[in-house]
Amino acid sequence: MNKSIAKKLTSWVVTAVFFVFVAGFSLLDQPSALAQSETPSITAPIISPVASPIQSVSANVKRLLQTKECVGCNLNGADLSSANLQAANLENANLADADFEKANLQGANLLGANLQGADLGKANIAGANLENANLFDADLEKANLQGANLLGANLQGADLEKTNLIDAKIEGANLLGADLEDAITPPGFTVQ
Fold this sequence. Notes:
The protein has helices at 2-28, 33-38, 57-67. It is mainly α. The radius of gyration is 28 Å and the shape is elongated.
């Protein structure tokens, strides 16, 4: 008789463990009501149809040098020193820590580009569109930014020593902590 009770108890315990196991996994598969009520709705970003496919930096450099087009691409840390990128389209590209020293970026489209920490020393950037670009801590020493569009650009902490800013559109740019020593500025130019 004890064997019969032990058998039934074992059967019940196994069944109970099975139900707890199944219930636990079904709960893991369901979002909680609390998470649903506290999670803000997130909308997917609009992806531009001209955005570059994800490729290596070296593949993007090769493409840029051949086509002068690399919209939204990753060129983080790329060596483009002395490159001729006149009128290149680098809109929304990641150019952080890239080396553009002595490069020709005249008339280039750098709208919204990330140039944080980039070396643009002695580069020709005249007439380029740098609207809303991030140039935080970038080196622009002795660069030619004559007539460049810097509207809303972040130049915080940038080195603009001896940089030509004649006719540059610089309204709304963040120049906090920028080095403007001996910069060539238009008459009446003041950092606000």
